[in-house]
Please model this.
Amino acid sequence: MDSEGLGRTREGADVAADTYYLLRSIVTVVLAAVLAFTFLFRTVRVVGPSMEGTLQEGDVLIISALGQKPRYGDIVVFYAEQTSLDYPLIKRVIATEGQSIDIDFETGTVYVDEGELTEPYVSDPANESSRLDFERAVTVPDGCVFVMGDNRNRSNDSRDADIGFVDTRRIIGKVLLRLTPLRAFGPVA
Model:
């Protein structure tokens, strides 16, 4: 075999090896992404106006599916037990187990353990028409959270008896980041 033929054979072997390593890398990345989005992360789309001011209908969110204990201010995704909704709800945690919550519908002020909450994320404070089934101060039972939408007057949340306290076992994740629209890409607070 002449040196020119040997050179072409080496080039062919190099191309085949490069192609193999490229395909192996692509398969590894795709497999890692599938595993991550199966066990660690999920995507969910915002339905309805209840979080307007923070999230808009149609936004696509990435949520952490790890079993983290919800804390005040977290935006969580859950399925409501008492409703026939076939999509998850997205609300903000206002109070956790053992805390008492009260709402003054005349001023729109929310109190947790008798302390007034500072809520810069609220687009419009709750008014009398958004009372739903909330009548008086309540204490959040063990293993549950009290949630409300940031758009208080257009949100069915823990004030509604059909949703009520949310069992933390029904929470499928905590919102980490807005994926779309791209102009709003980034962490959600």
Q: What stands out?
A: The domain at 41-179 is CATH 2.10.109.10 (Umud Fragment, subunit A). The chain is about 20% helix and 30% strand. The two ends are 68 Å apart (CA to CA). The CA atoms of residues 32 and 86 lie 29 Å apart.
